[in-house]
């Protein structure tokens, strides 16, 4: 059973940066497609970014050019570097292991506010 644990969220001013981490256990991490989603209050959970086992990436249009997803297979960890943050980036950010056996982390709050 895969377990995912996010960290790195917090309060940041507009224009600032944060790096989220997602540590995975209980799986052959390097073979899994991993991703990040986010959910703002009262809204659905939306795709943010994903990365394949080979390092190919995909991004939502709203974050492309500002966010970067990466992974360190030796550490069983996937990262989300977020730059030029905007108030509309405020949300709970979730790490996801894609199918088979899709799994979600518990989420980490990111608040962008002055």
Report the radius of gyration as a whole number of Å: 13 Å
Query: Sheet with the most strands?
Result: 7 strands, mixed
The percent range for helix content is under 10%
Distance between the termini: 40 Å
- By DSSP, the count of extended strands is 11
Shape estimate: globular
Count of separate DSSP helical elements = 0
Beta-strand percentage range? over 45%
- Average pLDDT number: 95
What is the N-to-C order of secondary-structure elements (H for helix, E for strand)?
EEEEEEEEEEE
Key attributes of the depicted protein:
single chain, 114 residues, mainly beta, 11 strands, globular
How would you sum up this structure, described in words?
The chain is mainly beta. The protein has no helices and 11 strands. It has strands at 3-7, 10-12, 18-25, 34-39, 45-51, 57-59, 67-72, 77-82, 91-97, 103-104, 108-112. The protein starts with a strand and ends with a strand. The mean pLDDT is 95.
